[in-house]
Protein 1
Amino acid sequence: MASSAAAKRGAKPGRKAAGRTPRFAWLHRWWKVALLVALVTIGLPVAHALFGEIVALLGGAVLFGFLLGRWTAPR
């Protein structure tokens, strides 16, 4: 049974107060871009050297699709 006043009013637990944005909100988006660039410039050549061209291309496509889907999914 809910004992807090907010829970009795029907408020959803665990919600943050709206209206405040983080100080470095722009950094949150751009570190993902930097991660993607690093994976392409470092990860694909290493995968190509270790596993061959087909595996590197298929793995890169699957990883890119997964990351793009996670980053653009509605919250």
Protein 2
Amino acid sequence: MDQIVTADIGGTHARFAIATIDRGQIVGLGDPVTLKTAEFVSFERAWDAFEERSGTKLPDRLSLAVAAPVANDEFSLTNSHWRLSRAQIVSQLQLSSLVLINDFAAVAHAVSAIDHAGLLHITGPDEPLPTTGVITIVGPGTGLGAALLVRGGGQDYHVIETEGGHIDFAPLDSLEDSIVAELRKKFGRVSVERLVSGPGLVNIYEVLGKLEGRSDLTRDEATLWSMALDQTDQLAAIALDRFCMCMGAVAGDLALAHGASAVVIGGGVGRRLSHRLGSSGFPNRFAAKGRFERRLAATPVKLITSAEPGLLGAAVAFAREFP
């Protein structure tokens, strides 16, 4: 059996764990260590902190999932100040093996390994995920991640990385027209993750307040999410309802674009909404696709309940590349 470091790096958190691999299968995933990305100047410094907490020298094999496109040797995290380089990571950490993938590609790899019990049904037919065809993986966190899991039957599958969170947001009613008009003043172009992400709730909330003529609505993201989920602030609760509607519309758009036969929701924000999405405006907006409404209504939507799918998926990707 071999041990590797598996890491999942997003705009807010850097997560690490030790995974154990036996003949291409993940047989163990150690307790995760979660660090705040903003508290470290680089990935290498976060690695050092993880090693210090582990109390032992780390394995020299790493599978790294990051919230960024990873086609080039050097790249920046989409929602963080970190810049990373494959060559520098291998050199500075003295690695013998490195697998580097997009964070939602890692989630797609995790979905390939998670059984039906690890998925919560949200809408559509309550049945296991199909063993063939395309499954859309999407989920809000610091940004909005998206990937495709293409299954060929049995253990055969491929993962396609995307930057679907950066497609244009399409408003569907007059209120969303107003929200987009206000956000366009701030951002210029309004992508879907400007609304469907952790910070997206703040954007929606502030615009709703402005439309009501209120100027006392500055809230940090963590506080606003707590108020919205606990329903201790009426406008925050209204913003969350709109967030779920927008999330349903975007998930349905991606499913159509991907030709998907199922959708799986991941991301930290997705887990926080696990018991709200099914009763929110998400299902109706997901299926409301005009001539394709029947197709979307027949598409199962699940939510990952596993605590650390990014770490698991990064480990699965490593095991596939180095069986």
Protein 3
Amino acid sequence: MFRNESRGGGRRRPLVIALAVAAPLCLAGGLAYRATNGSGPAADSSVRADKGASADPWTPGSGTSADGADSTGADTTSTGSPTARSTAKAPPPTRPAPTFTHPPKPLAGKVVVIDPGHNLTNAQHTTEINRLVNIGTNYKECDTTGTATNAGYPEASYTLDVSRRVRTLLTALGAKVVFTQDGNRPYGPCVDERARIGNNAHADAALSIHADGGPSTGYGFHVIAPKSLHAGIADTRKIAAPSYLLATTLRTHFHSATGEPFANYLGGGTGLMVRDDLGGLNLSLVPKVFIECGNMRNARDAKSLTDPAWRQHAAQGIADGLTAFLEGKR
């Protein structure tokens, strides 16, 4: 039977035609089935897309990333849109901290030389202090021991104490204060060296601070200015006038600060003298005066001179007088 079918070609044609018609019909049916029942490649891709949307909200072209930044880099997490953020008010600019400048001190740039009269240890160096030095008009001792109150308070202690108080006041006003001695020398210095210290410092003003040893009945203070002269190595012609102005200015302010009267035992009660026998004045090249703050041998004055509170008033009066002179006031 099989042999006859292989050899008889006419009998096979109906079967081939039937298979050719059935195959397309089956394929079309299968495709239709998948479309209606959610299977097939199209359905798989949509499912994958749905699953992807639930797992990652960002899709290309959406303009917003999962971390809240849009495609331009703007932050939309708080406002929901870059436009809302761009319209928010910027914080006010930070203002710089204010700067304060202090006005210059009134005596800034000024040099004052303070000469505390005598020296506590001069008495231990009598040979040295008795040596004569040239002061232009004559020769005088290098220095002296100074005087004292009847109770033994030394002039040298008074002068150094008040000088230090004056220095504190003037330094606070900006002045540079130079001392001729600050209790750190065995004796002196000699009167000619005291003058040189002021000259070498190019002082704007110089002052020797003393207390007098007059008669016990005399009281009060006085200021001594140099006489205008040219004698030997002494030449005060250029400084006599400004020194006199310094003397009168100092006299006014010292009297105002202390209430101390003008001396009643010399100077005609004016509280002012002009002399040519003091080496510290004769040899000065800068405006310079002496002040005798009171009479240590007078009981009334001695009480004041030994009182620390009064000495502070004395220092204030001296500082005020020097300041007024340096500022061109009276």
Protein 4
Amino acid sequence: MKVQVNARNRAYQFECAPGEKILFAGLHNAVDLPYECGSGTCGTCKAKLIEGEIHDPWPQAPGTRLLKSAQGEFLMCQCEPKSDLSIEVANFVYHADPGACIPAFYRGRIESQALLTHDVLAFRVALDAPMDFDAGQFVLVEAPSVRGFRGYSMVNFDRRARSLDFVVKKKPGGGFSEWLFDGQVQGAQLRLFGPLGKATFYPGLGKNVLCIAGGSGIAGMMSILSRGCQERYFSQYKGYVFFGVRSARDVFYLEALEGFRREFPDNLEITVALSDEPVPEALARRYPGLVFDHGLVHEVAAKRMEGRYQNVRAYLAGPPPAVEAAIRVLLLKAKLTTDNIRYDKFS
């Protein structure tokens, strides 16, 4: 079926198959429609139906609270066409940049999984076809026995990747995380859509890099660090990483983070912030290449970054309250411009 999108600057047309989400069809056709989460949570992808008929399989999606349904508004990430459509979005819309990684559907299977802490699990997905993605991006993941897509950032960075690494924190009532933690998922088939996200790092950036992450939000930062180290970016530019968790029992990836630091000891500084307890001496002794501090991660970053915000691009990830607190610090105290603060909302 044909979908015509009338944006503020121009109109676009693309094909959308029956049962396919309108947002996914547009992105796969290199039309950079507005979105953030892609999974029904944020409401960023809202559009107005002008002509035609749509089907909404999940009318209770959290993002619908931001819609004016009486005026024909709907979420493009949730709705499917039942006929040819004409829709309207309030944003400026452009074609994807030349060379951009265009999202597509992939099939995958869970190749391995491992507990990192009592409530954080790592898993690897083997893909049916290679995927190109940029450091800092995420994909939407759907399991056959769990309804709906969830967004997860890639931990690894590889061109034409044949496998993707993820971390997930167990959430009470979280269908996908509880399914993973049940343990009977080895070899399970998954459907993925991506890559997605704007919080991307490129070696041509030419700026010092600041990463502030809470909990499993460190995933995308690991991808950024991987690419930065592969390209020897930190031989020329500074890297500041702040990783926040509650306590010593919640830390993970410290060996990998210390490995990044050993590659570029002069320019890469990595700080682990414990919010709920003082730093145990044994932990600091075990990882001498890392800095440890006590406090909320955005407060620790603000203290340690004082006077060091020159020529900085910041990347943020983690629970929404932590991201919002870091944004306030970067805007009000660091005086960074909005184009130098990058994050994706898909919680």
